Amino acid sequence: MQRHAQVLSVSAQSVTVRLQDGPCTGCATGCGGRCDLFRSNHQKQLTLATGVAVVPGQQVVLIVSDEQLRRAALKGYGHALLGMLSGAAVGAMLARCLGFASDPMVLIGLVLGVAASLWFTRLLAVNPVLTPLAADYADS
């Protein structure tokens, strides 16, 4: 999967790019660029570690391998499943220990487990490879 971007700034440790509008190349979901795969801010800016020599104004492509996508999906869905099951198990144990009805406690545990897994999963992001499109660049 690939996403086009433009370099905004370059420092010794990082490169800030602005994602261009439109869908990712090679994306089968058809989100039209609305996915949060690259974890950009509201201005569609993303900061990456410096790996390639680029200059501000240069057009680049962010590439995410199929293996990275699979790994991110397994982690995301795996964490949600683990949160759901462990939250429900903790709710059931609490209901049993405290003498409460089990169904409401299991539901509360399930919801809290999923919420906790979503909280931790938000930090998972793929690390795209920054590839310059051309040697020439627009002066900014």
Oligomer class: single chain
Q: How much beta, percentage-wise?
A: 15-25%
Strand order of the largest sheet: 3-2-1-4-5
Find the count of extended strands (DSSP E, 2+ residues).
5
Mean pLDDT value:
82
User: Could you give a short account of the major beta sheet?
Assistant: 5 strands, antiparallel
State the share of residues found in helices, binned by percent. Answer: 25-40%
Structure commentary:
The structure is a single chain. By secondary structure, the chain is α+β, with helices and mostly antiparallel strands. It has two domains: 2-65 and 126-132, no CATH class; 69-121, no CATH class. The protein contains two helices and five strands; from the N terminus they run E-E-E-E-H-H-E. The chain has helices at residues 66-98, 102-121; strands at residues 2-10, 14-19, 45-49, 59-63, 129-132. The chain has a five-stranded antiparallel beta sheet, with no helix packed on it. The protein starts with a strand and ends in an 8-residue tail after the last strand. The mean pLDDT is 82.
